[in-house]
TrEMBL record:
<dbReference type="GO" id="GO:0046872">
    <property type="term" value="F:metal ion binding"/>
</dbReference>
<protein>
    <submittedName>
        <fullName>Heavy-metal-associated domain-containing protein</fullName>
    </submittedName>
</protein>
<dbReference type="InterPro" id="IPR006121">
    <property type="entry name" value="HMA_dom"/>
</dbReference>
<feature type="domain" description="HMA">
    <location>
        <begin position="1"/>
        <end position="63"/>
    </location>
</feature>
<dbReference type="InterPro" id="IPR036163">
    <property type="entry name" value="HMA_dom_sf"/>
</dbReference>
<dbReference type="InterPro" id="IPR017969">
    <property type="entry name" value="Heavy-metal-associated_CS"/>
</dbReference>
<dbReference type="Pfam" id="PF00403">
    <property type="entry name" value="HMA"/>
</dbReference>
<keyword id="KW-0479">Metal-binding</keyword>
């Protein structure tokens, strides 16, 4: 599982945009969003760099929290 902090995710529209971007980058992945903590957990995606790039392309800064 990979966890990203997305500090500029602040509303339901942001959540939908983040989920759509991550699902497009890793179609089989499970994406869970905690808006209050501004964190996104992704299970089943092989490439953290691809997910981080998808977040950036969608207009969100994403910092991976786990290693």
């Amino acid at each position: 599982m990979m966890v990203f902090r997305v500090p500029d995710m602040s509303c339901g529209g942001c959540v939908r945009a983040v989920q759509a971007a991550l699902h497009a980058a890793a179609p089989g992945a499970e994406v869970r969003v905690d808006l209050q903590r501004r964190e996104v957990s992704v299970m089943g995606a092989p490439d953290a760099d691809c997910l981080a790039r998808a977040l950036r392309d969608a207009g969100f800064a994403g910092e991976r929290l786990d290693a």
